[in-house]
Amino acid sequence: SAAEKGGFDWFMRKEIFEQPQAIADTLLGRYNNRGELVLDEMRSISQEDLRRVNKIVIVACGTAYYAGMVAKYAIEHWTRVPCEVEVASEFRYRDPIIDPLTLCVTISQSGETADTLMAIRHARVQGAKVIAICNTNGATIPRESDAVIYTHAGPEIGVASTKGFLTQVAACYLLGLYLAQVRGMKYADEIRAVTDELGRTPQMIQQLLDNAQQVYDLARDLSSINDFIFLGRHVGYPVALEGALKLKEIAYQHAEGFAAGELKHGPIAIIEPGMPVFVIVPPQGRDQLHDKVVSNIQEVRARGARTIVLVEEDDADVEAYSNVIIRLPRVSTLLQPLVAAVPLQLFACELATLLGHDVDQPRNLAKSVTVE
Ligand code: G6P
After folding, report:
1. Where is the active site (predicted)?
2. Which of left, alpha, beta for 79 (phi over 0: left; psi -120 to 50: alpha)?
3. How confident is the model over 154-186, as pLDDT tens digits?
4. Are the C-beta atoms of 282 and 250 separated by less than 8 Å?
5. Does the active-site annotation cover 55?
């Protein structure tokens, strides 16, 4: 009913708008006022074991897998422990190299996905410790894990995951910072700078939600288009993949995400005049990522693409090459997915609505896939 949906037309839209609160709930009580991580739920794995870990493997499916891709960048950066990420359905069948020094991190909103469950069972048989990041209390995956970090997003009803994704990403940051803290890799003030910034992300997300109309207008303008490209680099790459997945899931449109640097190795050949290309631009900074992505925008624009550019608010470098600019709040590169994903969620939800689809119950999909 409309009441259950809090006045929104879809659970999905309601859940998108719940994200500032959901992120705040994920963060709540997980670091103290000195910025030190306090993850009591990790106590079932000894700090000694966490210090000995020499490899991290992340396994998940669908949107949760993209959260895992973001996590890999953050965890390796903060801990310097090699981190792999793999779709759960591929993991155990290739006989992966795991041993008691491997930490397996699994991400699942429902905690019931069969592919993911089978992957962690396999990891445990090999002696790995398993940490679950999950939204559902007492689900099978957390019950079969050594430790669990609940995302506390509240129930997610829409089949296409939104607040599930954002809170998974936030929980992965907490885990990465915690591992860095336990292993003595980062000084307290560095960790504190990140937790301070994390604490500001709910208000950044709210700012984007307050500007939803711009994205809805864009969806109307593009409602007759059937092919969409998403480009990103570094943590913007999994955001591009997630933006494309959302369009496939609920709008049933052909959408592909690419690592922007791969454009020249193939995908640029499919660009045609008028094709919408969404580009997630890394924040301006000392590394060259930002400038390289700006060049990619020029390259697709030169071939006639309609460029929709997600870029931080005071970045003027893209203006000459953008058809539409979606402004993102200023945030560090590693945390940018928490803001950049939001306009893409809004876009997919609105496009699917305009096309007359059942946004909450897309064809052929299930909220939780309990068969392999
Ligand atoms: C299904 C859903 C996806 C979800 C995936 C993983 O395919 O339709 O939206 O991302 O399962 O679900 P999980 O509950 O494990 O996060």
Report:
1. 367 (for fru-6p isomerization activity)
2. alpha
3. 999 999 999 999 999 999 999 999 999 999 988
4. no
5. no
ipTM of this complex: 0.94
Question: In angstroms, how far is CA 239 from the centroid of its own chain?
Answer: 6
* Catalytic-role residue among 5, 55, 248, 367: 367
- Cα 68 to averaged position of ligand 1 atoms, centre (Å): 13
Check pLDDT > 80 for residue 339. Answer: yes
Tell me which residue has its CA closest to atom 15 in ligand 1: 108
Average pLDDT over residues 189-201: 95
- Which residue is it, tokens 């993209």? 66
Q: Which of 367, 370, 371 to mutate to test the pocket of ligand 1 (most atoms within 8 A of CB)?
A: 367
HSE on the CB side for 130, CA within 13 Å? 26
Tokens at 305, concatenated? 């693409």
- Model pTM score: 0.97
Is there a contact between 172 and 165 (Cβ–Cβ < 8 Å)? no
Calculate how far, in angstroms, residue 110's C-alpha sits from the geometric centre of ligand 1: 7
The one-letter code for the residue type at 226 is N
Strands of the sheet containing 83-87, edge to edge, are 83-87, 55-60, 102-108, 129-134, 147-150
The DSSP-derived string for 315-342 is --TTGGG-SEEEEE----GGGTHHHHHH
